[in-house]
Design goal:
- The structure is a homodimer.
- By secondary structure, the first copy, chain A, is of the alpha/beta class.
- Chain A contains 13 helices and 12 strands.
- In chain A, the strands form 2 sheets. In chain A, strands 2-1-3-4-5-11 form a 6-stranded parallel beta sheet, with helices on both faces.
- Chains A and B meet through helix 4, helix 5, strand 2, helix 6 and helix 12 of A and helix 4, helix 5, strand 2, helix 6 and helix 12 of B.
- Chain A binds a DNA duplex through helix 2 and helix 4.
Chain lengths: 346, 346
DNA sequence: CTGAAAGCGCTAACAT
DNA sequence: ATGTTAGCGCTTTCAG
């Protein structure tokens, strides 16, 4: 067995047939092109023997299809995103697509650069969890007729494919649940990012409180403080300034982690006297003490819907412009200890 | 501005120069090839104007370099791997490489298939967290002179590049720490996978116990039970069968999660009377009650070493065969409440 | 200083 | 039924 790289050409030479014939056989167009059984079998056997695999790169260059989907998210190391990534990965591979994940850190420049880089690479489609300032890039992709599916967030004034959850209602129900459990002073900890999902969550919270004649109390942390670690100090400050708080509602998972740390470090067991609720579920919440009530996003469904949309676009390159597929999923409030009425005497 | 795709050819035509000239200018070889200032500037300006970006696919086909690294890990949604992935991603992008992550679930067939698929795609290098049965594929890659760096685990009888930690010593020190804190009956919960990292951890545990005249007590769970959820039942069983256990040492992160759940569900507050220690750190361990002592792997360093090795190979395609780079990093035992001597009266 | 041309490996329209 | 051939967009040798 030779050590050289096999190509469709070398196979053709070896077998004394033409390149075309080999190509057709390989691509399963043998009978369609009425290639004789004998030749077909000969080629197939030989290919099998030498373990030939076509060069995907050349194929891509020729066909313009790379069979690669890129998935841009905030941070692949974040529990929410990595879980989603895994689900997307599995569905994509099933259909012969590979996925390149990249973390944008919600940074517009980085996102834009990445989008451009992947256009050079002719990726077939984009799954994007967008930061605020890349609206024009989405339009650019749409205009170029390249499949894009937004996820987790969208641009309200932009017609596009997206898969999101009903953030406002989810937060509304969650806050209502706290209210029904007799919490009177519910603080809301959120970030300053003006993304749809965050706006929706805050809206839902405010709505529930207003409806029940309660006063919203919101702590807005800068996204940058995620890195600097300043957010913990701010949360502590908030707690100290608002001694009458009896519950806290965290708008996203990393804030919850910080919040729990602050409470643990500064108030010890008082954590049990506190109402606690968070967006985004986590395996650890069920084994935490108290078990943490969470708004669980339907990850499987989200991944599935994203991919259904994506494959639809991939299949009908033309039709895609006609209308966009907009999916809004609902969440599940996983009610656990932390949000139940406190009967403990102080 | 036209709507067509720009290519090096269309630029050449537009500017009335040759394709070669454009190519040289684009690749920064203008002065090397002594192209006149004027022409160079003209081309550069035009490229800038139309926002031309070379087709990476064509470039790759021609050069044989795809600037893509594939990173195969057990499961991207697992905290340990996703954290590592993010670090690797960042380093790769800095150097102009993209990385494709894929989850193998420790499955040999899936891993092998993936390796083959990526060879068709001409990826430039492989970072692999290998399952047991892919030794021959690693050799195949090495033979084909394709950069491979193993991580987390390796094959003891295979000369290869790898970045791992000193599992045996880490587990030894950890177990010793428990012993020094007066725990007498330390159970070890691990999986049945015969991978080097798991073997090392168990060895270290056994060694420490033997040295101190204590009897090892090991629960081995099948990796498959990770999915079926049977592992929790087995852990509970183990605890019930061994009522004299006063400490537990978990060999890997998902077991810890299960273990904590079992303890919480069945023994309630007794968790505080128990010695607890785990491999793999997690943000939640510091906010858990009790705070969980963990063997923290040096993720940043691991990612860095993996990439240093990888870039070394990428740079010197020939030299790589000469000798392999084997990096063994040490871990840090993060001592927290859960492993400290219990002074609580029972 | 610049250009022509071969070719990376593959697909597919157009022969025959 | 099978072969010829023209590219996909780029790099690079060799000739001017």
């Amino acid at each position: 067995m030779k050590n050289k790289r096999y190509s469709i050409k070398s196979i053709a030479e070896e077998l004394g047939v033409s390149i075309t014939t080999v190509s057709f056989v390989i691509n399963g167009k043998a009978k369609e092109r009425r290639i004789s059984e004998a030749v077909t079998k000969k080629i197939l056997d030989y290919i099998d023997l030498i373990g030939y695999r076509p060069n995907q790169l050349a194929q891509s260059l020729r066909t313009g299809k790379s069979k690669i989907i890129v998935c841009m998210m905030e941070d692949i190391s974040n529990n929410f995103f990595s879980k989603l990534a895994r689900l997307i990965e599995d569905i994509a591979y099933e259909k012969g697509y590979k996925v390149i994940f990249c973390s944008t850190e919600n940074n517009d420049e980085k996102s834009i650069e990445l989008i451009d880089i992947f256009r050079e690479r002719q990726v077939d489609g984009y799954i994007i969890i967008p930061s605020l300032g890349i609206r024009h890039k989405i339009i650019e992709l749409q205009t170029a007729n390249i499949p894009v599916v937004l996820c987790d967030r969208y641009f309200p004034d932009l017609d596009a494919n997206y898969v999101v959850i009903d953030n406002e209602n989810a937060a509304y129900q969650a806050a209502k649940h706290l209210i029904e459990n007799n919490f009177k002073n519910i603080g809301f900890i959120t970030t300053d990012v003006e993304q749809t999902q965050m706006i929706g969550r805050q809206k839902g919270y405010v709505k529930a409180l207003n409806e029940h004649g309660l006063k919203p109390n919101i702590l807005t942390l800068s996204y940058k403080e995620k890195v600097t670690g300043l957010s913990k100090a701010k949360i502590l400050d908030f707690l100290l300034q608002n001694q009458d708080l009896d519950a806290m509602f965290f708008s996203t998972n990393y804030l919850t982690k910080n919040g729990l740390a602050v409470i643990k470090d500064n108030f010890g067991n008082a954590i049990n006297n506190f109402g606690l609720l968070t967006f985004d579920d986590n395996d650890f919440f069920t084994i935490y003490t108290p078990e943490i009530t969470a708004v669980a996003q339907p990850l499987e469904e989200m991944a599935k819907e994203v991919m259904v949309t994506m494959f639809g676009l991939l299949k009908n390159p033309e039709e895609k412009m006609k209308s966009y597929r907009k999916v809004i999923l609902s969440t599940e409030l996983k009610i656990r200890e932390s949000s139940l009425e406190k009967r403990i005497s102080f």
